[in-house]
Structure formats: C-alpha cells, structure tokens
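Notes from the 1:1 (GR / supervisor)

We went over the backlog. Supervisor wanted to see one worked example end to end before approving the batch request, so GR pasted a single chain during the call. The sequence is below; no edits were made to it. Supervisor asked that the structure be written out right there so they could see what the output format looks like.
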Amino acid sequence: MDLSGFFSYISSGSHFKNEKFSHAYIVYGSDTAGNSIFACNLAAAILCEGNGARPCMQCKHCTKIQRGTHPDIIIIDLPENKQEILVDQIRQIVSTAAMFPNEAEKKVYMINHADSMNRGAQNALLKLLEEPPSHTSFVLIAENPSPLLETVRSRCTAMRLTGEEDAPDSEILEITDVFFSILDSGDTAKLSAFSFDLEKLDRASLGKFSGTSKQRIVSLLKNDTPGDDSRLTAKRLLHIYEVLDRFDEYIHFNVGAVHICGMLCAELTDMK
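Structure output shown during the call:
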C-alpha cells in the first residue's frame, strides 16, 4: 500500500490528548479498515506539534502526513505476491532506526499485517523493541496478534479495537462505569473500596471487566470525549490500559483475585 493511500484514512480519525506516547503499539481487531484508521491517527498524533487534540490536522507535520509525503513515517507492508513480511524488510528498519528523523522529533515505523511477520522477522524486530532509539516509535497493525511472539507482544502496548459483536453484558458495563467515574474523580478511598468489591467477581467476570475497560479506553481515545477538566487524559488512559494488560496477565497465570485487584488499586492510586 502506498503512503498516500494509507493515510487517506486519517481525515476521519481519532484524536489524542497526550504528552508522552509509548515506544511501541499493537493495534488489532477484526475490522481491518478500523485498525488502519486508528493506527494512522496514532502515528500522526505522535508527530503532531499541536497544543490541543492531536493530530491537529493543521501543523506542518499533519499537513505532510495528509499528503502522504512525510519523510518520518515509514510503512512496511507485504511484498508483492508474498504472504509474509520477511526478515530482510525488518533488517532494513534495524539499519535505519539509529538515524535521526528528517523533520519531526520522532519517526514512526508502521508495520501493516504485522501478524504475517515470519519468525526471523519478529526476532530481528525484537532487538529494536528491547532497546529502541529514543527518537523512534513503532505501530504494528494486525487482525490477530496471537501469531506474534510473546516477547514481541510484551514490549508493545496492545490496543484492541472491537465491534458490536463484542458488547459486554449490563452488569459488567455498570461496574466499568463505576470504575471510570472513580478514576475521573481521583478519590483513592473509593478506588480502594471498589477493588475490594471487585475481588468478589469470578475469574471470567474479572476478564470481562478488563476487556470492557480496555474497550472504553480505546473509545475515549478514538472519540476524544473527555473534557478539558477531566483527569482521564490520554496519558492517564494509556497508563490505565497498561495496568489492565498486567491485570490480564495475572488472570492468565491464576494469581489470586485479592492480589490482582490489589495491584490494580495500587497502580492507579495517585495516578500521575
């Protein structure tokens, strides 16, 4: 896919209020077009010089990105007539990553169909993800991240975009509403009480709560719904997402509910 075609998605995109982005993301879900929309706007937001919602679509970087001419956005895609991204493509990234950006403060490598990378390509990328140059960011776009090595996934902030078929039940929605209301209020006593109540859920329900909360974060980032006076800035939302990733890992490894919910409370208390 050529650069201008890829960034034709950006006009309908998501906006972010953030001061610092993670060095690497995996954007995934069954809606491949939606994945591209979100990933394009995330990449643009990383380079944007706007003071408010990002991408601002007006600064010099946003303007070039819309035209598909920004030299600091590098897209890696499937080679013609190939079914996988090859190790030589990733080695090309490795050979250029140390070079400073041309115009922006960072450069963004976007890997389309990242779940098609063969093992050699993933291992080559892993070295960069472990010790990334400070001026580089990575956005991996996938329909299903499971083919990616766990070591690759663990070094990225995974953001799942979901459709209507993933709608949670009303009880979990209500719990999630309470959770975000407490986070927005900054009331640590209420957060502690909430985590105590959360411990009473079974493991499956804890997983649903985490998944629904992640959906809420992605929705907030996509739609730029928090007001200017909200504590739920993009920086904090991304931190909450990372904590929920750890929450899911604890569930997977059968850590007790008391410890899982205690970790959630501790990590989000006095959130910066």
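Supervisor's comment: The chain has eleven helices and five strands.
Batch request approved.
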